[in-house]
Structure formats: C-alpha cells, structure tokens
Amino acid sequence: MDVRENLPFVDPENLSSQDVLEVLLHLFRQKPGFVDRGHEINNKETAWVNAFLFRLKPGIDHDGVEIFVVEVIGSSVDRMANLRR
Questions:
Q1: How close are the terminal C-alpha atoms of the chain, in Å?
Q2: Which helix (H) or strand (E) is 18 found in, with range?
Q3: Do the beta carbons of residue 24 and residue 49 sit within 8 Å?
Q4: Following CA atoms 40, 36, 29, 10 in sequence, which dihedral angle do they give, to the nearest 10 degrees?
Q5: Which end of the chain is more exposed for a tag (fewer CB within 10 A), N or C?
Q6: How many CA atoms lie within 13 A of 18 on its CB side?
C-alpha cells in the first residue's frame, strides 16, 4: 500500500499517534471479515485494535520502497472485557 496515495493526510515520515491508528485501521479494513470492536490511540508507534496492541514499523523493502510492517505486541484481557459486541 502506498500511504501517500491511500491516506494523503498522513505523512509517513512524521507519524502522529492518530496517524498510526489510521494506517492500522485502513490495513485491517482491507481484510475480509474484520470487525472493529474497539480501537484506541497509544503512542507514535503503537495502537490498540480489538484489545491487541500493534506496532507500526516503517522500513524499506528489497526494492528500496518505503513500507510499514505491522507487528503484534500483545493483548489485554482487561481491554477484551470492555470490547463492544
């Protein structure tokens, strides 16, 4: 995904906490069957989606193209208990 093309309001070189959440939600919404039961800004690298904490890491692929790698950091039982049904 080209962030500049799909999310023109996001500057991939200067991500805010809201940008990280927006990119993650955009990516998850591309997956069939994804249901957003709750999300929350965490910081400039991570965000909570459906009680799982995800890290958005910028990188460069083998062709020299800017990419983001989504990494699962962990989950929270307390956050799962508060999910919308």
A1: 30
A2: helix 17-29
A3: yes
A4: -20
A5: C
A6: 4
Please name every residue paired with 49 in a beta bridge, in sequence order, or none if there are none: 39, 52
Give residue 1's pLDDT: 65
Q: CA of 57: how far to CAs of 37, 66, 80, 81, 84, in Å?
A: 23, 11, 24, 28, 28
Q: Six-digit token pair at 82?
A: 């508060």
DSSP 29-51: HTSTT-----EEE--SSEEEETT
Q: Of 3-7, 16-20, 46-50, which range is least confident?
A: 3-7
CB 10 within 8 A of CB 19: yes
Kind of pairing, strands 46-49 and 39-41?
antiparallel
Residue 67 or 70, more confident:
70
What Rg value do the Cα atoms of the chain yield, rounded? 13
